[in-house]
Amino acid sequence: MIIHENRLIHEIEILQESFAKTTTKLIKDVKRQDKIMARSDKRQQQEYDELQRKFAEVEALQKEIEDTQKEVVFTMGAIGESRSKETGNHVKRVAEYSKIFALHYGLEEKEAEMLKQASPMHDIGKIAIPDAILNKPGRFNENERKIMDTHAQLGYDMLNVSDRPILKMAAIVAYEHHEKWNGTGYPNQRKGEEIHIYGRITALADVFDALGSSRIYKEAWSDERIFKIFKEERGEHFDPKLIDIFFDNLDEFLSVRDNLRDVTD
Amino acid sequence: MKNLIFEATKYTPEINLDAKGIISLVGKSYPENTFEFYKPMIKWLEEYFEVNEFGTTTINMEIIYFNSSSSKLFFDFFDLLEENCEKHTITVNWIYDGENVSAQEAGEDFIEDFESLKIKLVEK
Questions:
Q1: At B57, which CATH number?
Q2: CATH class of domain segment(s) A73-259
Q3: C-alpha torsion angle, residues A75, A78, A82, A85 (rounded to 10)
Q4: What are the b/e assignments for A39-78, b being 16+ CB within 10 Å?
Q5: What are the distances in angstroms from CA B65 to CA A235, B72, B77, B97, B107?
Q6: Which residues contact B74 (CB under 8 A, 6 or more apart)?
Q7: Fewer Cβ within 10 Å of end Cβ, chain B: N or C?
Q8: CA-CA distances (angstroms) from residue A79 to A75, A76, A82, A86?
């Protein structure tokens, strides 16, 4: 008996072959896909490591730049002060007072911190004042006083050429720290809020520290005497709002003064 | 057959498809839609191998950075080359910078996967 092979078998065999081809291709594809994924994961890991390394590097560089800037700015302030018969920690105290004023006045932390760094440069213009005038022991005559007063404009001119925000701020401070609230200061007799808040703050911080410090030519003023004159000059020499801030937060100012007391005091 | 040139962009390589038999891909490859981006290239190649069943083609690939879908696409691309490499003489130069380990490893993977294809690793 001859049994004819069922035609179906042939068809199934064709299917089988095609199925084998397809599955082989599928396996190949899946393997390839896995390989790509594994490679990709490895690459991503390396890239992310690299990225983190780079970020850390940039951060360190940024810090380096900021530190250098702070140092340069502080040194510039110290140079200015060294020519203005101020000594010791004057620059540091003025910086701290300025920040306290700025914060209570309502400036943002970042801006207040910047003012802290910029305010020590208020007298930088004095580096351009001749020694004969700067170091004159007695009182200035009218002409000498005029020359002396140019240090505000000189400081502004030196600093304002920079595009750096902190130096721009320092330029304002240098320019306006001798203006008075009632318009009798110099160099521009600006009045009230025409004087930038940076100028008003530094003016008060500088005077507070100068009065309270002893110098070769003068004794330190007592607190009572300083407070009395501040009350008298409220709205005259000084921004009344800043005088109020001063008295409302006296402890903060005095604690800075204590912490940064001059060694010779 | 017309040559086809794609200028490099921030995310895609420069592609130069020269019907005289020189094909080059140079740059980075991490487009948002990889398969969409390479579609015209693949279409051009299919047509190219149809027209030039026999012939000689050199492919210079210098890809410094690529995402995983580009990697997948390059495998597909090499599949297409392999399908044609019996009659058509194809040489692939996988060019990489010595410091770019990822690019080197990718080249090694291609060699491993495409045994019948002539892929040369060329360190710059």
A1: 3.30.750
A2: mainly alpha
A3: 180
A4: bbeebeeeeeeeeeeeeeeeeeeeeeeeeeeeeebbebbb
A5: 66, 14, 17, 11, 12
A6: B61, B63, B66, B106, B110
A7: C
A8: 6, 5, 5, 10
Q: Structurally, how many domains does chain B consist of?
A: 1
Give start and end residues of each alpha helix (H) in chain A.
7-82, 90-105, 109-118, 131-134, 142-149, 151-159, 165-176, 197-212, 223-232, 240-248, 250-259
Are B106 and B72 in contact, with CB atoms under 8 Å apart?
A: no
Q: How do the domains of chain A map onto residue ranges? A: 73-259
State how far the Cα of A128 lies from the Cα of A124, in Å rounded to an integer. Answer: 8
Closest to A85 (Cα-Cα) out of A260, A262, A265, A215: A215
CA B75 to chain centre: 9
CA A259 to chain centre: 22
Q: Which residue of A has its CA nearest to B75?
A: A32
Q: What percent of chain B has pLDDT over 90?
A: 86
Q: What are phi and psi of A261, to 5 degrees?
A: -60, 140
Torsion sign (Cα): A87, A89, A92, A93: negative
Which among A99, A116, A126, A241 is annotated as catalytic?
A126
Beta bridge partners of B61: B25, B94
User: For the complex shown, is ipTM > 0.85?
Assistant: no
Record the tokens describing residue A24, joined without a space.
């082989």
CB-CB under 8 Å, B71 with A40: yes
Amino acid at A255: S
Domain coverage including residue B30: 4-123
Tell me the pLDDT tens digit for each residue of A195-245. 999 999 999 999 999 998 887 667 889 999 999 999 999 999 999 999 999
Q: Are A202 and A98 in contact (CB under 8 A)?
A: yes
Say yes or no for a CB contact (<8 Å) between A40 and B68: yes
Query: Given its phi and psi angles, is residue B89 left (phi above 0), alpha (psi -120 to 50 degrees) or beta?
Result: beta
Contact flag A43-B72 (C-beta cutoff 8 Å): no
Alpha-carbon distance of B122 to B118, in angstroms, equals 13
β-strands B118-123, B55-66 pairing: unpaired
pTM of the model: 0.63
Verify whether residue A110 is a known catalytic residue.
Answer: no
The rounded mean pLDDT for chain A is 90
